[in-house]
Amino acid sequence: MTTARLPIFPLNSVLFPGLLLPLNVFEQRYRAMMRDLDALPEEEPRRFGVVAIRDGHEVAPTLPGLPTGSLPEPGPASGFGADPLASFYSVGCAADAATVRERPDGTYEVLATGTTRFRLLSLDTSGPYLTGEVEYLEEERGEGAGALASGVVRAFRAYQKRLAGAAESTLAGRAELPAEPSVLSYVVAAAAMLDTPARQRLLQAPDTASRLAEELRVLRAETALISKLPSLPAVGLTQRPTSPN
Fold first, then answer.
1. Could you tell me which of 56, 99, 149, 158 has the fewest CB atoms within 10 Å of its CB?
2. What is the H or E stretch that residue 226 is in?
């Protein structure tokens, strides 16, 4: 397995390979990260690692009204406890920033794309932002991925119809699903209305076939559940281009 050292950007969401990640960067630690990435030579990828937060805060906590001495110590690991590594899920996704635009107020507008899964091995908190040693994970196809992909397409379409019915909306103009099993598995994982632990289980599935099998189980269960609900809010995700955030 290939290892690398990456800047680490923790989020309250899961990034999947191939999916877009728009970011509004305003904290000082992440501004410093984007400044360093933007300063890289043009031919080098502006790559950082995204990990989902298991226990902690995406934005460093501030406590208005309390004495200054009660505020958490600012720093790269602020909001993540004494052992930041334990606050994050161990499998994340590398992201390549296509756009890093600094605004006049010093904040950044970033558009990145998920590329490769990794396992987070260690964290370094000595700099202005978190960096980590990561081990890139290969995407294995697994047995029966093709047949499972066909089943997931059908199950996802049924799931979309149930969502649209619950919201009294239509599926006009829905995007076609990709045919390649691994790409399909990530698109469905990002588009389904799942919580962070469920998305994380899909991200860290050992191979494409295992991910598709889990998606098939989840989609069927969710579709059956939705059919029993009188209405369902916030289902526009099934009618928009897929984005993990």
1. 99
2. helix 208-226
Pairwise CA distance, residues 144 & 138, whole Å: 18
3-state helix, strand, coil in the chain (%, to 5): 35, 25, 45
User: Phi/psi at 21 (nearest 5 deg)?
Assistant: -130, 95
Helix axes 208-226, 145-166, angle to 10 degrees: 20
Taking the C-alpha atoms of residue 245 and residue 241, their distance in angstroms, rounded to an integer, is: 11
pTM listed for this prediction:
0.84
To which residue do tokens 């161990």 refer?
90
**What residues contact 69, with CB distance under 8 A and at least 6 apart?**
none
Cα–chain-centroid distance for residue 224? 26
Q: Are 97 and 46 in contact (CB under 8 A)?
A: yes
CA angle 173, 187, 93 (to 5 degrees): 145
- pLDDT tens sequence across 40-60: 999 999 999 999 999 865 555
Q: Sort strands 3-11 and 47-52 into parallel, antiparallel or unpaired.
A: parallel
Spatial separation of the C-alpha atoms in residues 48 and 132, rounded to whole Å: 10
Give residue-wise pLDDT tens across range 122-176. 999 999 999 999 999 999 999 999 999 999 999 999 999 988 875 544 444 466 8
Interacting residues of 229 by C-beta distance below 8 A, sequence separation 6+:
166
CA distance 65 to 47: 38
Q: Exposed/middle/buried for 47, CB within 10 Å: 0-12, 13-18, 19+? A: middle
